[in-house]
Amino acid sequence: MADKVLMKGNEAIAEAAIAAGCRFYFGYPITPQTEIAAYMAKQMPKIGGTFLQAESEIAAINMVYGVSSAGKRVMTSSSSPGISLKGEGLSYIAGADLPALVVNVQRGGPGLGGIQPSQSDYFQATKGGGHGDYRMIVLAPASVQEMADLTIKGFELADQYRMTSMILADGTMGQMMEPVSLDYGEPKTFEKPWAVTGTKMQRPHNVVNSLYLVPEELERINFERYEKYKQVEENEVRFESYQMDDAEICIVAFGIAARVSKNAIASAREKGIKVGMIRPITLWPFPKKPLCEAADKVKAFVSVELSMGQMIEDVELATRCKKPVLLCNRAGGMIPTVEDVLASIEKANGEGGAF
Question: Which domains are present in the chain?
């Protein structure tokens, strides 16, 4: 068994990125993700990598664009308001079909909000984040080990599909400490014949650009891009099914909300309520099929969120409104308690009144 070390979630992301072959990091400090930048600032010079604290989040994401164009693995990280500033650059990267890893360790909002954990950037991450028709692969860790594992996977998926991967973690995941194994071996790499690396007079020039002034050409590119996204939806859905074999109530939760929900499930089952959970690991592509199948077996769903209710819309769409979906939520940096989730389970089970 590989040795484990005690690390913060933010530090695990940084160390896993290095293990994945990332040698370029551009960012800007913002709580609660600053430890990622601090870790990279310390480690990158030791391994011949490049760390640069950009003058702004806007500058950082455009540096990512440039390095990715050259075919190198590159990462940036920020927290909610900083990701908003990166929105235009994220759209440019998508429009140029470039791979990159972006980390969002979420804080409460909107606006400056607060520095406590939140999941209120779900819409921003899964519905785009910037302008135009595009998608990002969105990975939602629920442990420090997954913070590391999904960082590795995020780089691989970004390279494989030539698109942005995003780690969408709440502030709790970034700040909590757990034992983590970082024994990944050699990183999986991909050929990048499209990269602008200099022709050496041996190949045609590569052009990396997102500008298409002929509408028919832009339409064609958009349709082709969505064919790629369709492949991602068919092949890359990840989720955890927890005690769903006999479940009559299904919780849907990710990140810290899923961890709280597991304790609530244990309490509910002690009371004789058959409840399980489907935990999306990929928020996009969303696990529509397992939720739709669950809708034929359970009598209700409970969406547990650190937001005013964003993922619940995808739960309702995935289940085609076959069964009622109850929202259990806290916002502004508050985390639902086990008692909060248990009360929602009892309500969904018909013990706490009508919806």
Answer: 4-235 (3.40.50.970), 239-348 (3.40.50.920)
